[in-house]
Structure formats: structure tokens, C-alpha cells
Amino acid sequence: MLRPEALLVLSDVTNPTGFSCTTVECLASPGSGSCAAVPGSSCSYTSYLRERDYSVLDQFTRVLYLLWIFCSAPLAAGQATEAGQAALNLRMPFSMTREGMPLTKALLEVGHRALSNQLIFGIEVHLQDNREPTVDFRFDASSTLGDVLHQIVRQVPGYEFEAVSDRMINVYPRASKGNPDSLLNTRVERFDVVEEEPGNILLQPKEFIPELAERLAPKRFASGPGGIVGITVRGLGPVRINLHLEDVTVRQILNEASAATQRVTVPGYRPKGWVYSFQPDPASDLGGVHSWSIHW
């Protein structure tokens, strides 16, 4: 005999003005904690309405569901560390609607409004005809950061996000994350910088990472457009960082350089994320055009 063992949430929707009531008597002392009403009076109010649909799982279907979760985990749209998951559960501070925004700009809008402007992104984006994917998003005070990111990333097929810390999110094409041919997965035995402006590392990482510079060195003259875009700008500000890392990837170096900007205490200094853009071009010796920019 099968017995119920668990509830599976099929949907969880909150309508901020979803419940109205116009047939109640008015409270005699609102805010006092007393439920005493004024006889013969009539009041109305509107409140949020949270609706959840559940499926009851018995022993058999629960096992099948857990197997499905385990097998499909690598395809999940969002991943998170324990600290990152706490950030994803935070509520957005107010409502916003945007339509047809480039992916990096949409994420910038979210970052400026979440976690008191302390949320930053590390983004890998593949271009088509030199254009980013565009997305729409809508959120209100009942939405969590995770809700918004899922909403955005679902519109870009093949992409996913990962909360690598409580204040940093990586967004990337799923096929690139474990692909050894991706520049961001280039292994770096040791990385050391002393008293360096972090923006310089984010704008032109090959100047600081010999392994990356080697991969970006053309092995022959390109027969078509392609190459590297990025500008090294010295003296972007008063902030300098020190980093000493071993056995890391280029992606991890960019993450650490960005994370260092979150620890800066200079008044008015805004933390910096990073963007790596790739425009494929089979005619290029480098496979296309690779570019880096600061996301802030």
C-alpha cells in the first residue's frame, strides 16, 4: 500500500493585490492587537494572495522525482554555493519592468538594485552579428533575486547562472563552462599582482596572464576580421589590489579581481564586475573576436 511521503511544489505565485474584502466590520482600535469591531460599520481592504499548487508524492513517485533531480542537475538554469543561495532568496526592494534589453545591461539593472548596489556579475556572452541576446524582465517586491535571474536566463537558450558567492553571480553559456577550448577555462599555475588597479586586470587580462596571452597569439595571419578588443588604462582610480592565486582558471582570476573591489572602503567606489564577449568568426585565426569590459 502506497502512502503519501512528501509534497512537490508545482507553482508558487504571489499576487500583491490578489485578495479584496469588502464585507467586514471596521476594527474599533486598529493596531492595538484587538479584534473588537464597530457594529454596523463596513470596511474593505486589499491584501496579497499567495497561491501554491502541490503534488502529493508517495514512496514510489518520490524516488523517481529524486532520481530526476539527480540526473538533470547539470542542466539546471541556476546553481549556487550555500552563501550564494542565501543571496538568491533575498527579496527585490521594489518593482521594475524592462523590455528588449541587451543581456549585460539587464543584469546591470538588477545588480544596481539588489544588495544595496553590492551585487556584481561575471558574464560570458556570445554575440551574433555583434549583438547580444535581448531579454525582458518584470519583478516586484514579492520577487526574489533568484526569481529575477531565472526569468532573465530562461530567455537565452543554453545559458545558466551560478551564485559563486553571496554577492557575485556568474552567467555563461552552459556549453562553455566545462569546455577546455574556452579561454575562460585556461589553467593558470600561478597568478600574482601587487598594487594593481583591478579595472586593468578586468579590461586586459592577457597583459597579466601569460597563459592567456599565449592562447591569444595568432599562429598565422588571419584571413578575415578577428582578434582581441580591450584597452589597458592605467590609473583608473585610487584603488589598488594584491592577488596571489595558484592553480586557477582565467574565469576564477576575473572573479577574484572583481571580488576584491567589493572589499574596497573608498567612499563612492562602486564594485566592478566583468564581461567577456565572443563573436565567432571561422575565418579568424583566433576563432573570432574576443573582448573584455568592466560591468558596473
Structural description of this entry:
The chain has 296 residues and is α/β, with parallel strands linked by helices. The chain folds into two domains: 4-75, no CATH class; 78-295, no CATH class. The protein is 23% helix and 38% strand. The protein is built from eight helices and 13 strands. It has helices spanning 59-72, 82-88, 103-113, 145-153, 174-177, 198-203, 210-215, 250-261; strands at residues 4-24, 43-58, 78-80, 96-102, 120-126, 134-139, 159-165, 168-173, 187-196, 227-229, 241-249, 273-280, 288-295. The strands form four sheets. A seven-stranded mixed beta sheet has the order 3-7-8-5-12-13-10, sandwiched between helices. A two-stranded antiparallel ribbon has the order 1-2. Helix 3 (103-113) packs antiparallel against helix 4. The longest helix has 14 residues, at 59-72. The protein is elongated, with a radius of gyration of 25 Å. It starts with a strand and ends with a strand. The model is unreliable at 9-16, 65-76 and 220-236 (pLDDT under 50).
